[in-house]
User: What shape does this take?
Amino acid sequence: MTLQERLHNIVARKSAGIEAMKVMLEKADEEGRDLTEQETREYAYLDKEVDKLKADEARVHKLITDDTELATPVKTVRTFITKKTAPEEFKNLGEFLFSVRFNQGDERLQYEERQQSMGIGVEGGFAVPTQFIPTLRMVDPQATIFRPRCTVIPAGDPPDAQVSMPALNQGSAQNIYGGMSVEWISEGGTKPETDMKLREITLTPKEVAGHTVITDKLLRNWGAAESVVTNMLRLCMTGTEDSVLLSGDGVGKPLGVLNSPARIEVSRTTAASIVFADVIAMFAQAKFGGSLVWIGSQTILPQLITMTDAGTNSVWLPGGTSGAANPPPGTLFGIPLLFNERSPALGTTGDLILCDLSYYLIKDGSGPFVATSPHVHFTSNKTVIKIFWNVDGQSWLDAPLPLEGATSNTVSPFVVLD
Assistant: This one.
């Protein structure tokens, strides 16, 4: 098998693996569920295989380049000497972090610096190589709720620039058609004047940073450090985003769902409780036609398990009082129910929400970047690793939507139990 054939085979296997992972996630999203245990194992296996194939592809591609240069006649060698070729990629994120900490003269760091036109970034950080960003942003369906369901606007050029876009003003002060009105006109009648109302949405990526401390010994052993550090940084990024996209106040950070001006707050029947009437009221004011999900704190589980209707019949556990023998359902009114460890506790506003997150916009900015410092824990032989990136978010709507013909009756993609 020639080197070109080997490269073609590697690329084909890598593409097949990526497509299989994509199909697996799309199928789970279409069915409104998380990955099964078997699918999770298959996804992890494919992910490792794709990473290995990427490394194989880089090695074979470099070998082909070197072989081509050796076969080139001497009289044309000067053309290649002046051309800067890409060095071999980092094997994994652990090796990248090792170079950031112990070998900042590494040619591969400098190549990333030139290619991304970032230089040495904010506070001495290096842009994370492109091939590792999907790993850091990788969505775990059981841990990450918002990013995979929101509308994400990728970083542009420049990545941290403010983005403004027009949107139809569909609040109750206008109407569902953004101020447009339609009338039947009799013969010879006057056509009414009508104006379409537009508003502007502005998103400006804000910087957010996190850090962790690991021993220099572990960092030098970058092969072992890779899985530990990658997992810590990934959970830091996904957890931080999930928290702020839920409850951010918009001051130097995204404006979360719980503070969206488009939300509808439903007053609960009894303080520190959730009863069937509350769930019905929330369901009645949701904006249908999209991809609704319930998001609740795990502290509300006892309320759901013991929830009954007017006839004291269990409304959530299957099989009435014998339902404890069966696993609890993953839906409420047929809509997926997700438990979020970052949601407010029972009795607090937002302990249960019903939302369609496709109405929420995320604007990615530059990053992530990584910086290291040995100074804080110098005598302990430990290194501080900092990761920082830029992101913003807010709801697409700025007010609840009126039902046609009745502006006082509104619905919303964000219904919050008050």
Q: What stands out?
A: The domain at 93-180+196-418 is CATH 3.90.1690 (phage-related protein like fold).
